[in-house]
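Weekly sync, protein design subgroup
Attendees: M.S., D.O., the rotation student, P.L. (late)

Item 1: inverse folding check
M.S. brought a backbone from last month's batch and wanted to see whether the design step gives back something sensible before we order anything. D.O. pointed out we never logged the input encoding, so this time it goes straight into the notes. C-alpha cells as presented (716 positions):
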C-alpha cells in the first residue's frame, strides 16, 4: 500500500479501493483494516501471498471483497475467521492456493456470491452448508472436494452453481428439482451416477447453461420434452445418451454451444438437427461416437469464429463447405474422401486435423492463405504429389504432420520459414534427396522430427543435433481458449496431444504424451550413410532416438551415457561396429533398446539395466557376448577355487551365512509382493532399475563374495 495512503488521515473515509492488476507483491497489509468505511476492496490479479489480516474483522461495512488471481495460501477456515460476518455480500477468492476444508458459512448471513474455485480445498461439505440461504452464486470448481452433495432445497435463490472438476459422488438428479431459479449448472468431471430424466429438469425453466460432462450419468429425456427451458450451452460429453441421436434436442433452438461427444450415439444425424443450427453456433462437438452419413454444408454458420469437432465417427463423403471464420476444424478418424481444396478460403483457421481419412489428390498450393494455422495434421490419408512450396508461408505453425501418405520429391526449402515449428512428422511417405542442413539451422525450436520410412540418403546433418539441443526443458504444451464455451471466468484450456510413432523391431509403436515430455528424433528406414555424429550426445533432453534400418557405419558414440533422459533407443539394422560403450549402462530411464543386426563386438557392459533386456535386443551381432546372450565371453568360464583362504575370510563365514539366509528369506516373502510386479510390468521394471542401479550393484557384489566364501568353505 502506498505510504501516503497509510499515513494520511483524509483517506480514512474511503469507501472503495481498486488496486487490481498492479503486480503487487508480498502480504496484504494490516492497514486495510483501518478503513472502517470501506465497502469495496478489489485486489484481484496481483501476486499477493499469505492470508487475510486479523484487522479485516474491523471492516464492518465491507460488502465486496475481491482477491482472486493471487497466491494466497492460508487455511480456509482460518481465512474466514478473520472476515467480517454480517456485512459481506460478495467474496471472490477464485484462483488462489487456499487449502483445507469448507468452513461453517452459516454466520455469513448476508453472503450472496461466493467464489472459491481453482484452489486446493478438500474434505466434504459441512453439515450446515444448506443454511446460507441468500446465496445466488456459488463457485467451488477445480478443487478436491469429496463426498455427497448436501441438501440444496434451502438454497432456492441459487442462480449459478459450479462444482465441476472435484471428487463428488452419489446421485445428482434429486438435488436439482428445488432449484427453480437456477440459470447455470456446472457439474462436470466428478463421479456422479444415476439417471437424469425430464422430471428432474422440468422445474428448471430459467436454465441456460448445463454442463454434466465426464460423469457416469444416463440422460433419458424423451422426445416429447416440453421446452420449459432454452439452453444456450449444452455439454454432456461422456454421459450416456443412448444409441439414437437425442431427439429432445429438437426442442432446443437457441444453443450456441453443444458437446455430445463420446455419448454412445450410433445413428445418422437427422436433417432437422442440421436445419435447426443457428448461425451463431460457436462450438459444435459430436466427436467419438459412431455417427454415420454425410456432413452437409455448414457455411451458413458465421460471425463467432466457431470450433467444429466431428472426429472419431463414421462420417463419409466429400468435405462440405465450412464457415469462413472457423478457427478449429477436427474431422480426423472418419472415412471422408476426395480433395481438400475447398479449405483454401478458411483464412482464420488455426487448427486443422483431417488425419486418418480417405482423402486423396495433391495437396493444394494455397497454404499462404491459411497463414494463421498453428496445428496441421493430414496424416494417414492418400495424398500424392509434392509438399507444396506455399506451406512455407505458415510462419506461426507449431505442428505439421503429413505422415502416412504418398508424397514424393524433396523437402521444399520454403519450410525453413516455419520457424515456430516444434513438431514435424513427414514419415511413411516417398520423399527423397538429402536431409537438408536448414532443418537444423532454421528450425531452431524443433522438438520432434520424424522422417522415417522415406528414401532420404546421405549423411545426417550435424545441424540437427545442434538445433534440438537442450530442448528437454522447453515448455511446449499448447493451449487454446474456446472463448465462451463456458462461463467467462473459466475458459476452456485444451492441451494438444500428439502421437509420436516410432519403429520398434519393425513394428509401428505409439509413443503418446504431451509434447512438454517428448523430445524425439526418428530417421529410421531410410538410406542414410556415414557415422552417427558425436554432437548427438549434446541433446541432453532427448527422450527417443531411432536411427534403425539405415546404412550407418562407425561406432556408437562413447559418451552416449550423457543422454540421461533417453527412454527409447533403436540403432538396429545398420553397419555399426566396435563395442557397446560402457556409458550406455548409465541410462537409467532406458525402457526400449535395440542394437540388433549390426557388427558390434565385445562384452555387453554389465549393469542391471542392460542385462534386463531380451537377447533379441542384441541379436545378429556374432562377436557380441555376455548376458543376456548365450555367447560366453572369454575369461568368464568357471574359475578355479583352489586359492588360499585368508584368516579374515574364515572369520566372516558365519556372517556370510546369516547374510545369505536373510537374503533368501527376504526374497521369499517379498518377491511376488513387489519384485513380481516388476517382472510382469515392463515399464515398472525399468523405472525401478534406474532408481536402484547403484544400490543393487553394491549389493550383488557383496552377495557374490559371500557365496564365493561359502563355496570355498564347503568344497572338498
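Designed sequence read out in the meeting:
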Amino acid at each position: 500500500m502506498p505510504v501516503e495512503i497509510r499515513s494520511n488521515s483524509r483517506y480514512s473515509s474511503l469507501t472503495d479501493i481498486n488496486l487490481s492488476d498492479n503486480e503487487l507483491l508480498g502480504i496484504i497489509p494490516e492497514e486495510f483494516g483501518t478503513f472502517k468505511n470501506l465497502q469495496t476492496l478489489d485486489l484481484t490479479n496481483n501476486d499477493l501471498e499469505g492470508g487475510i489480516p486479523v484487522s479485516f474483522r474491523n471492516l464492518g461495512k465491507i460488502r465486496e471483497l475481491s482477491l482472486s488471481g493471487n497466491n494466497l495460501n492460508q487455511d480456509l477456515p482460518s481465512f474466514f475467521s478473520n472476515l467480517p460476518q454480517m456485512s459481506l455480500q460478495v467474496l471472490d477468492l477464485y484462483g488462489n492456493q487456499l487449502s483445507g476444508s469448507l468452513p461453517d458459512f452459516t454466520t455469513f448471513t448476508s453472503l450472496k456470491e461466493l467464489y472459491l474455485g481453482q484452489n486446493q480445498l478438500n474434505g466434504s461439505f459441512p453439515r450446515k452448508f444448506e443454511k446460507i440461504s441468500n446465496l445466488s452464486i456459488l463457485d467451488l470448481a477445480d478443487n478436491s472436494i469429496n463426498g455427497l452433495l448436501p441438501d440444496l432445497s434451502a438454497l432456492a435463490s441459487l442462480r449459478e452453481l459450479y462444482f465441476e472438476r472435484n471428487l463428488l459422488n452419489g446421485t445428482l438428479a434429486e438435488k436439482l428439482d428445488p432449484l427453480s431459479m437456477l440459470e447455470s449448472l456446472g457439474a462436470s468431471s466428478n463421479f456422479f451416477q444415476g439417471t437424469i430424466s425430464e422430471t428432474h429438469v422440468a422445474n428448471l425453466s430459467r436454465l441456460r447453461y448445463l454442463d454434466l460432462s465426464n460423469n457416469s450419468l444416463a440422460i433419458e429425456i424423451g422426445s416429447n420434452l416440453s421446452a420449459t427451458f432454452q439452453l444456450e450451452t449444452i455439454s454432456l460429453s461422456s454421459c450416456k445418451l443412448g444409441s439414437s441421436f437425442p431427439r429432445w434436442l429438437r426442442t432446443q433452438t437457441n444453443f450456441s454451444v453443444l458437446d455430445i461427444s463420446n455419448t454412445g450415439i450410433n445413428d445418422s444425424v437427422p436433417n432437422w438437427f442440421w436445419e435447426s443450427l443457428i448461425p451463431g453456433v460457436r462450438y459444435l462437438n459430436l466427436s467419438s461416437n459412431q455417427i454415420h452419413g454425410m456432413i452437409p454444408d455448414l457455411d451458413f454458420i458465421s460471425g463467432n469464429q466457431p470450433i467444429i469437432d466431428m472426429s472419431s465417427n463414421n462420417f463419409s463423403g466429400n468435405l462440405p463447405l465450412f464457415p469462413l471464420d472457423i478457427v478449429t476444424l477436427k474431422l480426423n478418424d472418419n472415412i471422408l474422401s476426395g480433395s481438400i481444396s475447398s479449405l483454401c478460403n478458411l483464412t482464420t483457421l488455426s487448427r486443422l486435423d483431417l488425419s486418418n481419412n480417405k482423402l486423396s489428390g495433391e495437396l493444394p498450393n494455397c497454404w499462404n492463405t491459411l497463414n494463421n494455422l498453428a496445428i496441421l495434421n493430414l496424416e494417414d490419408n492418400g495424398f500424392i504429389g509434392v509438399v507444396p512450396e506455399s506451406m512455407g508461408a505458415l510462419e506461426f505453425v507449431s505442428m505439421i504432420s503429413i505422415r502416412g501418405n504418398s508424397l514424393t520429391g524433396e523437402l521444399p526449402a520454403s519450410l525453413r520459414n516455419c520457424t515456430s515449428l516444434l513438431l514435424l512428422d513427414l514419415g511413411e511417405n516417398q520423399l527423397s534427396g538429402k536431409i537438408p542442413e536448414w532443418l537444423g539451422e532454421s528450425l531452431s525450436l524443433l522438438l520432434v522430427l520424424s522422417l522415417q520410412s522415406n528414401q532420404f540418403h546421405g549423411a545426417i546433418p550435424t545441424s540437427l543435433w545442434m538445433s534440438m539441443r537442450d530442448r528437454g526443458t522447453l515448455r511446449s504444451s499448447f493451449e487454446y481458449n474456446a472463448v465462451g464455451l463456458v462461463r467467462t471466468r473459466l475458459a476452456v484450456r485444451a492441451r494438444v496431444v500428439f502421437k509420436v510413432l516410432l519403429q520398434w523391431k519393425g513394428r509401428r509403436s505409439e509413443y503418446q504424451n504431451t509434447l512438454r515430455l517428448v523430445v524425439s528424433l526418428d530417421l529410421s528406414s531410410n538410406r542414410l550413410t556415414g557415422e552417427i555424429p558425436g554432437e548427438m550426445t549434446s541433446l541432453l533432453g532427448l527422450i527417443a532416438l531411432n536411427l534403425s534400418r539405415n546404412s550407418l557405419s562407425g561406432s556408437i558414440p562413447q559418451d552416449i551415457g550423457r543422454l540421461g533422459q533417453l527412454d527409447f533407443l533403436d540403432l538396429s539394422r545398420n553397419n555399426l561396429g566396435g563395442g557397446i560403450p560402457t556409458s550406455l549402462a548409465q541410462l537409467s530411464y532406458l525402457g526400449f533398446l535395440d542394437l540388433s543386426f549390426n557388427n558390434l563386438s565385445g562384452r555387453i557392459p554389465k549393469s542391471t539395466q542392460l542385462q534386463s533386456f531380451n537377447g533379441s535386443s542384441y541379436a545378429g551381432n556374432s562377436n557380441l557376448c555376455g548376458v543376456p546372450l548365450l555367447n560366453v565371453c572369454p575369461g568368464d568360464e568357471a574359475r578355479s577355487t583352489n586359492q588360499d583362504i585368508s584368516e579374515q575370510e574364515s572369520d566372516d563365514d558365519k556372517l556370510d551365512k546369516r547374510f545369505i539366509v536373510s537374503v533368501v528369506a527376504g526374497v521369499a516373502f517379498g518377491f511376488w509382493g513387489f519384485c513380481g510386479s516388476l517382472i510382469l510390468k515392463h515399464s515398472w521394471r525399468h523405472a525401478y532399475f534406474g532408481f536402484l542401479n547403484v544400490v543393487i550393484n553394491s549389493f550383488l557384489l557383496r552377495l557374490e563374495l559371500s557365496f564365493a566364501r561359502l563355496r570355498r568353505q564347503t568344497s572338498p
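Discussion: The chain has eleven helices and 49 strands. The mean pLDDT is 83.
Action: P.L. to compare against the previous round before Friday.
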